[in-house]
Amino acid sequence: MPEGDTLFRTAVVLREVLLGRTVSSARGRPDGVQLERVIGATIMSVESRGKHLLIDFSNGLTLHTHLRMHGSWHRYRPWETWKRPADRAVAVIGTPNAVAVCFDAPTVELMDTRAVAVHPQLSTLGPDLLAPEPDVERAVANLALPGRAGTAVGEALLDQSLLAGLGNVYRSEVLFIERVDPFLPLGQLAPGTAARLVGTGARLLHANRMEPDRTTTPDALGGQPGSRGPRGAWDGRLYVYGSAGRPCPRCGTRIRTRVFGELPRRVFWCPSCQPPGAGGVAGVHEEESVHG
Asked: CA-based diameter of the chain, in Å?
C-alpha cells in the first residue's frame, strides 16, 4: 500500500499539471463516480492527507481517492499512450495540456467540498506526519489514549486515526531504529518511547517525501549515532523490511517476520535488538509468541 510519502509526491506531480487549469474533459467508470460534473471547473488545490488524495474544484466539489494496495495516479500529455489499459481507469481528468489518470483505486468519491470535514475517514484522521509542522504532541497523546493501552505498538503505528502517513514499511523500520518490540502493548511503553517513534517516523517521511527510492538508513537519518550497522556502515536502503532470514545490520541476528494485527500485515524485526518488552517499562511485558 502506498505510504504517506508516496501520496505527497503524487500530489506534487499532479499539482504541476493540474493546479489552476480548467477541466476540459473528465470521466469515471460507467458505473463509478460522475466526474463529468467537474468539466469547465478550475482545479483549485491538489493535496495529500496521510494516505488520501484530495482534488478541489472551483464549483464546490472535491475528488477523494485512496489507493490501497494497487491504485496509482499517472500523468500524461494529451497525445501520449497510457501505460495501463483504459478499462482500469477509475478517474480521468483532462486539461488542454495534460491528462491525469487514476488506475485501480478502490476508493473514488466526488463530494461536496463542505462534506470533507465530516467524511467518516477524512474527519477521523490523526495528525498527518507529513504536514509542514506535524502535530507530534497530539500523535503521542493519541498513542497514550486509555482505550488503546492493550494495542500492540506495531499495530498502532498503522492506525491512521492515531497518526496518519506511516505504512507497513515505515512501521518496521521505525521500530527497529528505536529498538522497540513490535508486539509491546501501548500501555507498557516507557516514558519518551512514543515520542521517539513518532519523531523518527515524521523525520523519515519528510526525508523521503521527494525521493522515489525510499531510504531509512543513515542517509535519511542524517547519519544519526546508532543508526549504522555493526561495521559502521550500511549500504542498503532499508534496515529490516523485506529482509526475513537475513542478518540484522546491527548485530547479525537473523531478521524475523510475522503477520499480525486487525488488518493483517507483515512486520519485520530483529529478536536481539528488539527482544520482548524492548522499549517498555523495565520488567513489564508479555512474552512474545514463538514464530516459526
From this structure: 65
In the block, cell 480548467 appears at 22
Distance of CA 230 to the CA centre of its chain: 29
Q: Both 104 and 224 in a single domain?
A: no
Is 51 labeled as catalytic in the residue annotation? yes
Same domain for 262 and 141, yes or no, is yes
29 and 115 inside one domain: yes
Looking at 16, 36, 51, 247, which residue is catalytic?
Answer: 51
User: Which CATH number belongs to the domain containing residue 55 in this structure?
Assistant: 3.20.190.10
Active-site residue (options: 3, 109, 173, 178): 3
Shared domain for 150 and 259, answered yes or no, is yes
Q: For residue 161, give the nearest of 210, 121, 134 by alpha carbon.
A: 121
Active site residue 146: no
Q: 3-state SS of 35-73? A: HHHHCCCEEEEEEEECCEEEEEECCCEEEEEECCCCCEE
Predicted TM-score (pTM) of the model is: 0.84
The strand pairing partners of 72, in sequence order, are 103
Strands 72-76 vs 99-103: parallel, antiparallel or unpaired = antiparallel
- pLDDT tens profile 10-26: 999 999 999 999 999 99
Q: Are 270 and 174 in contact (CB under 8 A)?
A: no
42-69: per-residue pLDDT in tens?
999 999 998 899 999 999 999 999 988 7
Residue 112 inside a domain? The answer is yes
Contacts 24+ apart (CB under 8 A), 75-83: 75/13, 75/14, 75/17, 75/99, 75/100, 75/101, 76/100, 76/101
| Same-domain status, 94 and 158 | no
Domain that holds residue 102: 4-124
Told to judge if 286 belongs to the known catalytic residues of this protein, a careful annotator would answer no
